[in-house]
Amino acid sequence: MAALSFVIPMSVMTLFWGIIGGVVPWFIPKGPNRGVIVTMLVLTAVCCYLFWLIAILAQLNPLFGPALKNDTIWYMYYHWP
Amino acid sequence: MDSFFRSEEMCLVQLFFQTESAHNCINELGHLGLVQFKDLNPGTVAFQRRFVKEVKKCEEMERILRFLENEVVKSNIPIPADFTSETIPVPRDVLDLESRFDKLEQELKEINSNRDTLRQNFTQLMEINHLLKVFDAFLFYLHDRFVAGVIKHERFPAFEKILWRLFHGNFVLRHAEIKPHEEENMADPVKKDVFVVFVQGDQIRGKIRKFHASMYPCPNNAYARKEMRTNVNTRIEDLRLVLKRTEEFRETTLTAAAANLQEWASKVKKMKAIYYTLNLCNIDITQKLIVAEIWCPVSDLNSVHTALIHGSEQSGSSLSPVVNRIQTQQTPPTFNRVNSFTSGFQSIIDAYGVGNYQEINPAPYTMVTFPFLFAVMFGDCGHGLVMTLLALWLILHQEHFRKLKNELIDMLVDGRYIIFLMGLFSIYTGLIYNDCFSKSFNVFGSSWSVRPMFHPHGPWTNDTLHDSGHLHLDPLVSGVYSGNPYPFGVDPIWNIASNKLSFLNSYKMKMSVIMGVAHMLFGVTLSLVNYIFFRNLKDVALQFIPEVIFMLSLFGYLIFLILYKWCVVMKSESAPSILLLFINMMLFDYSSEGTVLYRTQKPVQIFLVVVAVLMVPWLLFAKPLLLYRKHKQLKFLSLPFCLSLFFGVKKAFVSLQVSMADIFVYQGIHTIEYCLGCISNTASYLRLWALSLAHAELSEVLWKMVLQVALRVTSGMGSVLLAVTFAAFAVLTVTILLVMEGLSAFLHALRLHWVEFQNKFYKGSGYKFTPLSFNRMRDMQ
After folding, report:
1. Which of B38, B127, B492, B586 reaches 20 to 30 Å from B360, CA-CA?
2. What beta strand segments (E) does chain A contain?
3. Closest Cα to residue B685, out of B553, B522, B549?
4. β-bridge partners, B472
5. Residues of A at the B interface (Cβ-Cβ below 8 Å)?
6. Chain B: residue nearest A81 by CA?
7. Omega of the bond prior to B603 within 30 degrees of 0, cis?
8. Does residue B497 belong to the interface with chain A, where contact is any CB pair within 8 Å?
9. How does pLDDT run across B39-98, given as a tens digit for each residue?
């Protein structure tokens, strides 16, 4: 779990949604719609980050693998890295 | 700034103004659109009100206007576009307009009836003309008795049959078709025949009359006929001229009327609204003062005041209206200030129930969570892209669509921002589900590889491939699973795996439960905000804390189990099922082996279940018992200190009137609803999984059975077949996947908000603020 290829996406996404949800709200100009825009930004960041996090955590330690057809296996043997 | 998160603070204001300035002031308030008039004469029936005659007059004028508009449209005269006229309708305008409308109506009716009579005459003359023309061809019989006339072409065969029956063939019938002239297209496309019957006897006339045929006297000799023809021709020419003049006159009148139609319509509407509002006010007996009570947002009091001063200045009255704010115990209406973006979301919240005065408005949160939950159920970035583009089109061409005045399209246009957000979020969830028209993207390279499964690394050989149809990749063989999950979304290998659903179902079900519990916790937290705002700290301890602890200890723990099982490496054979773990936890059943995920699981679970069970009596009994004690205390104290306490603790006194049994029952219902609701609502969120599964399967079927069939054709005709099949694919995608699935996901996301989210904190039993607003009346046309 400490492998580099996991840390990179983790930190990139956390940083991205963290900026959207935590930093951009401070820069929204004052006006009648500021509260609504800030709420929307924070909620979007939280929802989207949570959704992405669930997707990646669900695949972290798989208990079973995909079942493939013979031709697919043959193709993948030669053409996928 | 705070105004969208809860409804605005409203105040009850008394207005006093003079009778002369009443119209102008109300007109100004109507343009402002920020005040709601209270009905100060609630007992009176509609036709007992003071201004009922004027309202009736306005309605009569509206009827005349509708008639005029019909006539204008029928004559294909264009109505010039609306221009905002700021003329203020005053009482004398009513009389003036009324007389004008009456005159116009009379004129138009007269013109219409004259024109119809003239047309009738014209038709008759033309028929006689035709008759005379073809008569010469028939006149070799020179019989004395004959009847000539014109009959409708389709009735002629029946006519002939009747004549045969009547006269047993003892007659001569000749007929000729009238060829339509150029000017006989005046709404008279009926084909007519000229006929002549030579027969004895008079009963023929009655029969002809029954056939609605017109008979004309025709002279016997040719000279008389010729004279008649010239006569008829002159008359026809005269009539033509008169008709043309009539038509011109009618058109001029109508065009003149059409130019003012919009202005009059809006004036009459405004006047009717003003009289209706005046009916709600209190007219002082001395007939000089009008008292009105209005609800108005506190922040807009100044603009209301300015508008009133403006109105009274316009009417030239000396005294400015008095604005007097009064305190009241009545519940004010709920007012949420919306703009064109937020109005769609507010309306779907209000469709369920308008919020109580100043309670939390779920709309700002719904603006993100509703499209997001829709997108979780819709989850296809191709369809999401189409939906976004459709919404963009609606947004950019909004005016054009509104002009069509179709109800269905109006609904779509009102929700254009909702659809836009739904499409955007669907693109995102589609990218995470890795589903685009049922195909996956492989951007980062899959984490699964096949090569390590073969010799010498793993168990497979070339023979294994030949023997079986499907083979499972085993994550325990090193190298098969790279150890790093696909960085963004679902790994693309699952799209081509035959056990794709096993993985996706488990993933999506757990995702739904996590989303659901998070959503519901958010709802419960909003109830805390409500309690704090209404200074109801008692309820925080008596309701909020046990509710949160109950939910966290059971369902928060379930989420912990899910996350733990995902994050910890374990062998597939020894991995316990979370569902069984949860059920056994509730039943305190720790007998079966292999039921532990982590070492201290058993004591932790027992502790959590006990805590949750303890929350139930806390919720059930704490609040009623406290109220009961307060009731007893007050009863004890009320004897000597009756009067002073009455004013001091008036609120508590009022609540004491409610019997204790009611409070216990209410609290019992609330507890059961909450606790059972926690379980059922969490399960209800599984519809997120179910709908996204249905959508993915439908889109896969469309691909495999429709488009792939054409893509597999190798001959040259394949391109033509592909074009046709793609048309079918596109139509089916739009109707089934976008429209049907879109509506279905919309409905279910809405239900999740209305029921599962809002029953944690929303009361929704207020009434909506409906201000007198001329803009709104105009938009509602």
Report:
1. B38
2. 67-69
3. B522
4. A67
5. 1, 3, 5-6, 8-9, 13, 32-36, 39-40, 43-44, 47-48, 50-52, 54-70, 72-74, 76-77, 80-81
6. B449
7. no
8. yes
9. 888 887 877 787 888 888 888 888 888 888 888 888 877 777 666 665 666 777 777 888
